[in-house]
Amino acid sequence: MYEDEAFKKSFDPKLARRILRYTFPYWKAILIALAALFVTTLTTNLFPLILKFAIDRAIVPVKATATAERYHLLLLASLLFIGVRLLDFVARYVQTYSLAWLGQHVLFDMRSDIFRKIQRLHLGYFDRTPVGRLLTRITSDVDAINQFITGGLVGFLADLFMLVGIMGFMLYLNWRMALLAFAVMPVLLWATTRIRIGMRDAYRLMRIKLARVNAALQENLAGVETTQLFAREERQERRFDQVNRELRDAWVLVIWWFSMFYPIVSFLGEATVAAMIWYGGGQVIQGAVTFGLLVAFLDYVRNFFKPLQDMSDKFNIFQAAMASAERIFKLLDTPEEVTDKPDALPVEKFAGDIRFEDVWFAYKSPGEEVDADEWVLRGVSFHIRPGEKVALVGATGAGKTSTVSLIARFYDVQKGRVMIDGHDVRDYRQRDLRRAIGIVLQDPFLFSGTIEFNLRLGDETIPAARIVEVCKFVGAHEFIQKLPDGYRTVLGERGAGLSTGQKQLIALARAVLHNPDILLILDEATASVDTETERQIQRAMERVMEGRTSIIIAHRLSTIQGVDRILVFRKGRIVEEGTHAELLAAGGYYARLYELQYAEAG
Q1: 448 and 325 assigned to the same domain
Q2: Residue 358: pLDDT above 90?
Q3: Does 571 lie in the same domain as 461?
Q4: Do both 443 and 302 map to the same domain?
Q5: Least packed by Cβ within 10 Å: which of 1, 165, 448, 488?
Q6: How many C-alpha atoms does 57 have within 13 Å on its Cβ side?
Q7: Is residue 372 domain-resident?
Q8: Lowest mean pLDDT, pick from 87-101, 477-491, 533-547
Q9: Pairing mode of beta strands 449-450, 437-440
Q10: 389: closest CA among 523, 562, 590?
Q11: pLDDT at 418
């Protein structure tokens, strides 16, 4: 069940008010656009009157007029027409520019709010939410809000102003002919309402299919290496063709309703024109109205149906905007499950004393019930002293990485406490806590940009000499210098162009550069590299860990023999604890893991 399927209203006042709050800071642009809108309404309705003046006073005068005076009146009408057209041009320019300016500023603010919200959400949210869906929120959904503000709401007001203005001028000129033109309105409103309902449902279906296509694209682009590795290109193409075909069919349905709508409105409009020619022409023959008035009326009738047609079309924009707004505000209203307390403690420097006290943890939101088989950690307790080097080992899914994530407070525990230097991690400011923790992952993430940018991460206060010093310290300087532009070498997405070991060394240097004296956590940093690179990283790690509290997660048990202590995890519990030699001598679970790995290596 996609969340996109939940919204069915054409217009929701509460959502509309939340959207309009984004326009309040730009009230001057709104007033300018509305003033320009009033002018364009007036100028548009003046053109038929100028035409009537030219016909009745000069071209087919209702009373005898000298030829020279008729030419003079024609020149006057032409000048009036040009003058009003110039005024209309300026007003339309101001209106279009003001609305576009307003829309882009609202888009900027909304995208910024969404991005800030995404940055604040805890990692559990991203475990449950496809990235493609989030991309849809910040791109096409935000664009739908822009359409609502610039083309929908203001456009609806423009059409309403224009419609009222045309009706007023028509009633002023001849109320009988005006009522004849208005007689078609009930039929038009009935037809457009029926079609609008179909368009609403079709457009809603199209948005659902579009979100699915975006999600499929993101997933396939992220997994293209796996697809090629297992030669599943044709299978993935067939799967994408299916969702792509559904999107095509949904669009065809939208187009079908559009193709029904415009001919119906056009036919009713032309039928009204035909009725006006018959009735108005008869009035001209009888001398009840002038020929100029008939021509002006025909012009008003043609203009009369355009705002009606546009106003019906605006409901489609409203529907798309309401659906997009619901999804955007649902994201913005998502509870931030990992938050700072009002009196959260700052962190200047950690001594590095870490303590787990009867910690129970599952990947669930606060308040959700946890089944017995969903616990990832079950009553875990241990103490790591300042400066101690501790390794976490165990089978995949035993709870090692979850333990590290809790120390950095990427998640909150359901039971128990995670303590650093005598305080629960929930008592610290998250920003300070994570600044004091360096994490090097098995697959380190590097941003597109220069190596220097990836090391600094936007911190321009770090001297270049310090960067070189740290890179030499971890052993990354040598290979960086051999790159075409050294530290200025531009990397592709996710560090494309570098080997896994090189990315590991850069990630290690980055961790040290930003946290030189505090807590360092290494998460399976050598699991995906060759033996020679592993030794290089091991030497760098030994230098980095010196004097720091360090936690190492490693699959290769041979790499952790020099640590102070090893914690052995099994099914979310610590089953053994001790040094490498002590655990081997005990002949327990760790010894079996070591023997199995040694046998595989042999």
Answers
A1: no
A2: yes
A3: yes
A4: no
A5: 1
A6: 16
A7: no
A8: 533-547
A9: unpaired
A10: 562
A11: 93
**pTM of the full predicted structure?**
0.68
Strands 415-420, 449-450: pairing is unpaired
Residue 464's CATH number: 3.40.50.300
One-letter amino acid for residue 214 of the chain: N
Q: Average pLDDT of 485-497? A: 79
Residues 68 and 173 in one domain: yes
Q: Which helix (H) or strand (E) holds 297?
A: helix 291-332
Which strand ranges, in their side-by-side order, compose the sheet holding 423-424? 377-384, 354-361, 415-420, 423-424
Percent with pLDDT over 90 in the chain: 11
Same domain flag for 288 and 390: no
With respect to residue 348, please indicate whether it lies within any of the assigned structural domains. no
Based on the domain organization, do 60 and 163 belong to the same domain? yes
365 within a domain of the structure (yes/no): no
Report d(CA 244, CA 241) in Å as an integer: 5
Cβ-Cβ contacts under 8 Å for 501 (sequence gap 6 or more): 529, 530, 533, 534, 536, 537
Domain count, the chain: 2
Q: What is the pLDDT of residue 416?
A: 92
Q: Which CATH number does the domain housing residue 171 bear?
A: 1.20.1560.10
Check: CB of residue 58 under 8 Å from CB of residue 184. no
One domain, residues 308 and 439: no
pLDDT tens for residues 203-225? 778 878 887 887 788 778 777 87
Which of 528-538 are b and which e, b meaning 16 or more Cβ less than 10 Å from the residue's Cβ? ebeeebbebbb
User: Looking at the predicted structure, is the pLDDT value of residue 80 above 80?
Assistant: yes
Residue 19 near residue 148, CB atoms below 8 Å: yes
The whole-number average pLDDT for the span 487-502 is 78
Q: What domain range includes position 495?
A: 386-398+434-601
pLDDT on residue 424? 92
| pLDDT attached to residue 456 | 85
Q: Is residue 2 part of a domain?
A: no
